[in-house]
Amino acid sequence: MNILIVGGGTAGLACALILQKLTSHKITLMRSPNIPIIGVGEGTTEHWTEFCNLVQIPLQEFLVHCDATFKIGVKFSNWTDNYYCHTISSESLSNFYSKEHLLQRYLYSDVKDFHSFYNNKDLRFYINEKTNEWMNLPYQMHLDTELLNNFLVSKLEERDIEIIEDTVSDVILDEHGVSSLKCETQDYNYDYYVDCTGLKGLLIRKFDGIQWLSHKNHLPLDLAMPFRTTHKEHNDFYTGARAMDNGWMWKVPVQSRIGWGYVYSSDFATDVDCLKELVEVITFDNSEDQNVNRIIKFEAGRLNKCTVKNVTAIGLSSQFFEPLEATNITSGILSSMQLGRNLSRFGTDQFEKKMNDHFDRLCINLSAFIQAHYMVDREDTPFWRHVKHDLTPYPHLMEIIELLSHSGLLRDDDLNYEDLLFRPQNFNQIFYYLGMLDTSKNNQFISNLNDEDYNFVKDFFFSHPSNRFGPWLEPRDFFETFKNYKTPNEVKELWKW
Questions:
Q1: Buried b / exposed e along 169-178 (16+ C-beta atoms within 10 A)
Q2: Residue 35 belongs to a domain
Q3: Cα 70 to chain centroid, rounded
Q4: Do 146 and 37 have their domain in common?
């Protein structure tokens, strides 16, 4: 088949690389020269490393060309009385999960001091002396979106994926789906189309029966105000998510600057209100820092289907809930992988079903996990009173909470699909800090552990990583070493014990 990906943003570019790797089809990408890239700092989940491994992009190369930094998780400030953290699984912890079911039962739930991982003094990057390798590399990243897109374009060019510069003016349908695209320079005919045209969904929304399912009654934020500030010396390897009067604010540190954004609700604040609040909480060093020159409007929600006939929508053209937890890039990667694995079924009754079933699971998982963060006990502003009293609980989230009410803790088989973005250990972390988990010995799953097992799991977490044996590097030393392709043995003078 000849496949055309329409859209030159991150979703489209990543999809092109994935489909080339997973299929034998001819891949072409069309991008419009008239659509600018929103070049703000953005975070990823651990699936980004999976993507890089799949399409064979060395992490060091990505770090250098995309102004990227490592991310060990998200630090939530001002949501509760104390800040809390949503961490990630390093390679060793992931292996530990699969090898020892103890941790899958325990799932971070008794780690009151995991905050220390976010203290620069306790964040350490360990070395395997025998293999001359780094241990526990973070799988998540911060990156500059504009630089990322330029980098991915270069990868498409290296791998002979054709890039067409043109703008869609009309989409022509027949009984088989999209028959052709009318564009500014010429018409195009392909066998299959991937709609990565962003919130407009230029192809997928041409089909009868395609509807946007709003989640505004679950997730009320609808505006984002991105901006950047000059870089300050720091060792932050986490995304900041600070609750504000009318929403929340992200902080994404990349190598040369810091990307920020205020996500808020138009029902409770104006742009001017939010700008005034920003000035109160951020110290701007110069006039270039406070460069808020655009407002991004969105509506939390999803399409009822992502795939119709010979079109699949991926990325913002299919769903967007809000920026919390950096789901945008990852959802596009997961959907592209699903498409790549299922294109061999195109033309069968099963193809659309498999694609849309996966899309349903993805969206249900995303919406439930994001809304879980808003189950906080605060009502100090009209917005937060609305969140506490008036939001409609997402059905899947209520199912998960009901499971918690019976067991006190989500276990690994409660969400048993392999292609979910967020798993029980992710939900357990959030619920723990919101005071919704029973982590005592009365918990039926924890009570199944004998004392030796219980103490082993507990000691493992409290001793990790600050009390581990072996050499290690401080974050900034490690980062500079790693991105310059140096092995641990080449920087022995920097080792600490």
A1: eebebeeebb
A2: yes
A3: 14
A4: yes
- Based on the fold, state whether residues 314 and 183 are members of the same structural domain: yes
Own/partner long-range contacts of 53-57 (Cβ < 8 Å, ≥24 apart) = 54/18, 54/21, 54/22, 54/337, 55/17, 55/18, 55/20, 55/21, 55/155, 56/21, 57/155
Task: Supply the pLDDT for residue 91.
Answer: 36
pLDDT tens-digit readout, 311-356: 999 999 999 999 999 899 999 999 999 999 999 999 998 999 999 9
Element containing residue 496 per DSSP (H, E): none
Place of tokens 């992200």: 250
Residue 124 amino acid letter:
R
Give the separation between CA 365 and CA 397, rounded to whole angstroms: 9
Give the H or E element holding residue 178: strand 177-183
Identity of the residue numbered 170: D
Give every residue of the chain whose pLDDT is below 50, as ranges.
89-120, 461-467
Structural domain that includes position 241: 223-297
Residue with tokens 């034998």: 24
Q: Which of 249, 278, 297 is at the close of a domain?
A: 297
Which two three-digit tokens encode residue 116?
Answer: 């220390």
- Residue ending a domain, among 329, 349, 367, is 367
Q: d(Cα 223, Cα 450) in Å, to the nearest integer?
A: 50
**One domain for residues 172 and 274:** no
Residue 336 counted as domain residue: yes
